[in-house]
Amino acid sequence: MRGWIVLALVGLAAQLVDGSLGMAYGVTSTTLLIATGTSPALASASVHLAEIGTTLASGASHWKFGNVDWKIVGRLAIPGGVGAFLGATVLSRLSTESAAPYMAGVLLALGVYVAIRFSTGSLQRRPGKVRSRFLLPVGLFGGFLDASGGGGWGPVATPALLTTGKVEPRKVVGTVDTSEFVVAVSASVGFLLGLGSEALDPMIVSALLVGGVIAAPVAAFIVRYMPARVLGAAVGGLIILTNSRTLLRTFDVEATAGPVVYPLLALLWVAAIVYTVRRHRREKAAGVDGWKAAPEDERELEPAAR
């Protein structure tokens, strides 16, 4: 029972981050599961099966609070579902031994991306429409990486939409989270075909599901107020540290490299968080919060809205 509660708390924390940032549920959950000894394919399959429920709850919550752009959802979700099915099929055919360093490498790269993106990136918006020729490759790549790497839909889709500057940040989060339902279903089908239902652990799936469903409406409510830069840097650092440990163990160099690598990564993590906190405060004091639309962007959108 204690293990179930711990996993439920993992699911709750991961969904709070994902529902507020539009990313990191799969990356965070899969990273922690692998760190406890769960095989890569089983970890990713369990997380995606749980995500069917959590993304449904999250999408409904974001829709309730007006955080979803339905014109983008379908054009992003369909290629995302195709990519996720292909990614699940690929991972299901890899052995545990060969998949472990691959998964750790992918998750490490995603952790670096998340940390850098929310520490240094600009998240202001501009008026305009996001074209299908942009959404198609983003969906395919994000879905494939999400299933094969244990996470990646949010880290790919959310920053991609934000960098266009054409979608309000809160709607980027809500749209990506809502689209992820199709990705989760497609990945789960691919894993069930490749691994079989007997390979899944009901305890892991149910715990992640319950924790995620509880957190979904809370995350949708606070999405407008969450200091995304700080949280993104913190989550990215956690993912980097955890997967660096996996890689060092895989290549049997933890004993020699660990005493140097771990303190260095921890120092960089703290420095990134301190820098991000200061930047967030400067932007807030200047009236240009990197997670919300700047006042001038609101004025630019008024004619289009009319």
TrEMBL record:
Provide the membrane topology annotation: Multi-pass membrane protein
Q: Which GO terms describe its cellular component?
A: plasma membrane
Supply the alphabetized keyword list: Cell membrane, Membrane, Transmembrane, Transmembrane helix
List the InterPro entries. Answer: TM_pro_TauE-like, TSUP/Inactive_protease-like
Q: Where are the bilayer-spanning segments?
A: 72-93, 99-116, 203-223, 230-248, 260-277
Return any one Pfam family short name.
TauE
- Mainly localized where? membrane
Location within or outside the cell: Cell membrane; Membrane
- What family does the Swiss-Prot or TrEMBL record give for this protein? Belongs to the 4-toluene sulfonate uptake permease (TSUP) (TC 2.A.102) family.
**Protein name, per record:** Probable membrane transporter protein
